[in-house]
Amino acid sequence: MADGEGDPGVFTATALPGDPRLLPTVTNAFLGTRVFRDILHAAGVYSGAAGDTHRADVPSPLGLRMAAPGGHSPAESFTLDTWTGTFSHTIQSPGYEATHQLYAHHSLVHLMAFSVTIRRLDSSTHPITIQLQSLFVPHSQDLHLTPGPDFHGAHYIYGQTLVPEVEGGPRPTVHMLWSPIPGSLTLGGAERERCWQFLTAVAGSAEEARRSFSAGLALLPAGSLLRSHLRAWAALRRRCSVQLHGPPALRQALHGCLYYLLSAIPPRDSPGAPFHGISPGGLANGTRGEDYWGHVFWDQDTWMFPNILLLEPEAARAILHYRIRTLEGARRNAREQGYEGAKFPWESAATGREVCPEEIYGAQEIHVTGDVLMAFEQYYCTTQDLKLFQEDGGWELVEAVAQYWCSRMVWSEEEQLYHIRGVMPPDEYHSHVDNSAYTNAVARRSLNFATDLARDLLLPVPEEWEDRARKIKVPFDEERKYHPEYDGYSPGEPVKQADVVLLGFPLMHPMSAEVRRNDLEMYEPVTDPAGPAMTWSMFAVGWLELKELQRAWSQLEKCFSNITEPFKVWVENSDGSGAVNFLTGMGGFLQVILFGFTGFRITRSRLLFDPALPDPITELKVSSISYLGNRLEVTISREEIRMEVAEASRDPLASPLEAVLGSGQRFPLREGQSVSFPTAAGWIQRSPSRTP
How far apart are CA 397 and CA 414, in angstroms? Predict the structure, then answer.
C-alpha cells in the first residue's frame, strides 16, 4: 500500500515479497506460523540439548495456497488486517472470487483456523473449482510423530521432541488434530456462494487438543468461531489503542508493531496455562539456525515489556511468571560459574539454563540479569501488585538477583569502589571489559530495588546490598562530562548498538542534562549504522528528553530502513540480515511513542510525563494507559493534555489519582470526567488524601 492510501492498519499487496522470511506471521500466545509455510511452532516446545536447543518444527496443515485450475492466472491480492488479526489471499477471475482467510484464535490459543470462500459474481450456473496446493506432510525433523485415531472427522498425530534441553529433562509432547484438506473445492452450479472451514488444534495433551478442537467445531456453524476471535482481538486492540495524527508511514508502522507484538501476548483471563516468553522473532520463527532459534533474550524484558506493561499489565505479569518459573535454572547458571544467587541466561528456552550456542555471550553478557529485574521493578511501581512478590515467587527472584550481583563484584583497594570485571556490554563489539557502565548501572538499580522492596515487605535488608549499591563504580569522565562505555574506552571507538545511551532511558541513571547530551553526542556518530533496529529508538528518546525534536525525528526515521514492505515485517539489520519479524525493533519503536512522545517515566511513586511531539506529529492519543489499577485515556497535542480515567481502580482502599504540574497545579482524575491543561511536564500520582 502506498503511503497515504487507505486504512493505515490494513496492508494489501498484489504480489508477495521475494524473500519468504518477510511474509507476515499469524500467531497467538501458544501457536504461530508464517503464512504459506509448511511448519508451525508451539510455545515452550523446544528440541535439542543446550546450545542446540531450538523451536521444534511442527508440520502445519495451514500453509496451503489457492490456485485457479488449468494454469489460468487470475488477479490476486494479499491482505494483513491488523484490526481483525487475520490474513487473507483473494483470487479474482471473470465470474467468481475466492478468498482464503487464516487466523490464530486469540482466546482459544490451541486453535488455528482457515476458511475458503468461493463467491459467484455473475449469473452463470457452471461449477467453479479452486485447487488447494499444500506442502503438508505429517512428519517432523524434531518430533517423533505417531498417527492416532481420527477424532470427529479430524486426523490425529502425536509425539515427543527428540532431544531434551537438559540431560534427563522432559521432552515436550505435541498432540495435533486437523481437518482433512482436499486437493480442490468446487462451488456447485446451483450455488451462489459457499464457505469451507478447516481447524487445526495443537496442545501438550490429547485431552486439551480434543477439547480445543471440539470447542472450535461447536462454534463453526454460522461463523461463530471467526466472530469469537474477532471479538477477542477487537477488545485487545481497543484496550491497547494508540493513535497518531502524523505521516501515513508512521501510522502504518505503528499499527504493524502493535499487531505483531500484541499477537505474542496471552489473552486476558486465560486459564492457568504457563506463558513461555517472547523471542526476538516471535513464535512463528525460531527453527534451527533461524531467528536465534526461538530463544528469549533481554529483548523481551528491556525492549518489549515496557510497552506491554503500560497497555496490558496482565500480560506483563505473565512474562514475569516465565522468569519466575525458570528461576531454578538461573540459580544453576550462577552456581556453575562460581557465584551465588541467580544468573539469568543470555539465551533462555524452557528451563532457564543457558542455551546460547556461543559460550562467550552466556559467560559475559550478564547485564541480562539486571534487565530481568528492571522489568519486575517497573511492574511493581506501576501496579503495586504485592501478591506476585509475596505469594508467587517474585521476592525469591529479586533476592536471588541481588545475591548474584553482590557475589559478582570485587573490591578495588585502589579506587575504593566495587568493580564488575570481564564482561560484554550491550555493545557486543567489545568483550572481556571491566566496569561496563550499563552493566554496573543496572546492577546498582537491581540492588536499590531489592532494598526498597524488602522494606515494603517488612523483610530484613542485608547491609551489603546498600553498601555495594552505593560503592559500585559507574565510569564517568569528569573532564569530558560523559560516561565512557567501560574502563579504557577511547572516544571514537565504534559501538555496535545502544549501550551507554540506555543509562538515561530506561535506566534513569542520575545525570544532568549536560551529561545526557554529551552521552548522546559522543555515541551517536560512532554507533554502527548497520546495527540492530532498536538502537535508533533510544537515541530518539534521548533527544526527545532534551527537546531536540528535529534530532529525535531524524533518529526515528532511521528505523524505517528496517521495515519491509508490504506487510511491515521488521528485519534486525537494515541490510536484511539477522532476525526477521524483529519484535525487539518494534518494541523500541513503540517506546518512542509511548515513552518518548509522552515523556512517561515509571518511578517509585509517580508516573512522570513531559510530552514532546516532533513537527510531523500533531496529536497522540493512548486510549488505555494502565497505572495503579486505573485505566487512563491520554490525549496529547502541542497545546493541551487531556486525561480521563476510563476505568478506576476497584481497590476500595486506594486513593484516586491526580495529575500534578511542575507549577503545583493539581487536577483530580475521576472516573468518566475529562480534565485538560496546557501541555507541560508533571506527574500522575495517588492523591495524598481521599476525595469523594
Answer: 33
CA distance 543 to 558: 14
CA proximity to 556, closest of 583, 538, 582:
538
Closest of 599, 590, 628, 597 to residue 379, by C-alpha: 628
Using alpha carbons, list the distances in angstroms from residue 241 to 86, 234, 244, 383, 495. 18, 10, 10, 20, 35
**According to the model, what pLDDT value does residue 467 have?**
98
Contact 439, 446 (CB under 8 A): no
Residue 256 has φ and ψ, to the nearest 5°, of -60, -45
Three-state SS string across 592-629, please? HHHHHHCCCEECCCCEEECCCCCCCCCEEEEEEEEECC
3, pLDDT greater than 60: no
Quick check: 651 pLDDT over 50? yes
What are the beta bridge partners of residue 55?
46
Kindly state the cell numbers that stand for 555. 533518529
H or E stretch at 641? strand 640-647
Evaluate the omega torsion of the peptide bond into residue 247 and state whether it is cis, within 30 degrees of 0.
no
> What is the C-alpha to C-alpha distance for residues 263 and 233, in angstroms, rounded to an integer?
9
Neighbour-count burial of 273, counting CB atoms closer than 10 A to its CB (0-12 exposed, 13-18 middle, 19+ buried): middle
Cα separation of 296 and 278, whole Å?
Answer: 6
pLDDT at 266: 92
C-alpha cell recorded at residue 566: 508490504
How far is C-alpha 106 from the geometric centre of its chain's CA atoms? Answer: 16
Residue 349: closest CA among 44, 677, 667 = 44
Position 355, amino acid: V
Mean pLDDT for the chain? 96
Closest CA to 327 of 302, 352, 297: 352
Residue 590 phi/psi, 5-degree rounding, is -65, -30
Provide CB contacts within 8 A for 221, sequence distance 6+: none
Cis geometry, peptide bond prior to residue 164 (ω within 30 degrees of 0): no
Residues acting as catalytic residues? 428
CB distance 346 to 420 below 8 Å:
no
What's the one-letter identity of residue 98? A
Centroid of chain to Cα 641: 28
Domains of the chain: 10-232 (2.70.98.40), 287-560 (1.50.10.10), 619-686 (no CATH)
Question: Which ranges in 342-497 belong to alpha helices (H)?
Answer: 359-364, 367-383, 386-390, 394-408, 437-456, 463-471
pLDDT tens by residue, 554-595: 999 999 999 999 999 999 999 999 999 999 999 999 999 999
**Pick from 196, 223, 16: which is nearest to 119 by CA?**
196
- pLDDT value for 272: 66
How far apart are the C-alpha atoms of 654 and 117, rounded to whole Å? 52
In contact, 65 and 133? CB cutoff 8 Å: yes
**Are 536 and 499 contacting, i.e. CB atoms less than 8 angstroms apart?**
no
- Asked if 59 and 140 count as a contact pair (C-beta separation under 8 A), the reply is yes
**Residue 238: per-residue pLDDT:** 96
Here the cell at position 97 is: 472470487
Cβ(648)–Cβ(635) below 8 Å: no
Distances (CA, A) of 287 to 37, 265, 631: 12, 20, 38
Phi and psi (nearest 5°) for 38?
-95, 10
CB 297 within 8 A of CB 355: no
For cell 522492596, the residue is 453
